[in-house]
Specification:
mainly alpha; 3-stranded mixed β-sheet; extended
Amino acid sequence: MDRDDPDTGTTSKIPILRYYNVFNSEQCEGVTIPPSVEPSNPFTPIETADLIIRGMPIKPEIKYGGNRAYYSPTLDYIQLPNQTAFEREEEFYGTLFHEAIHATGNVKRLGRKSILEPSYFGSHDYSQEELVAEMGAAFLCGYAGIENITIANSAAYIAGWLKALKNDRTLLVHAAGQAQKAADFILQRTSNAEA
């Protein structure tokens, strides 16, 4: 709604609150609800990527369904949308690797502080953990031979978190070290420092 100010001659917008009745479709009679359509893209597994996940030591449970991907530190499981919900197989594996890197922070695995201690979205620890997960996912994608989609996506994602961290370059180096350690854990490789 517009309001004219007689003193200044300007027009401004006035927000209006509206009230609507909302009903569950099961409460309505005579209304045909179209079935919800889930995306269904053909999915061809990438064997090397599957082998990486199958070989992960102390692997968390992986659940499928819904439209979000996340790792639950308290219940130690990975939740992913169905594989056919992803436009490309590379996107699925990049997301799975990202969540698997988060899972390495669990006390049963590497015990990373940024997973063990609660942190809120956008906090320093949260941002650092996202850098670790995305870099680690990029390392695993490279190992699996997945290159064509993950490099641009990972670079943009990492740049976003670095901006949130005000371009702290030492943090980037630290996060990269943790990401490599997490990727090595999943791949069951011993780093040169430990050899």
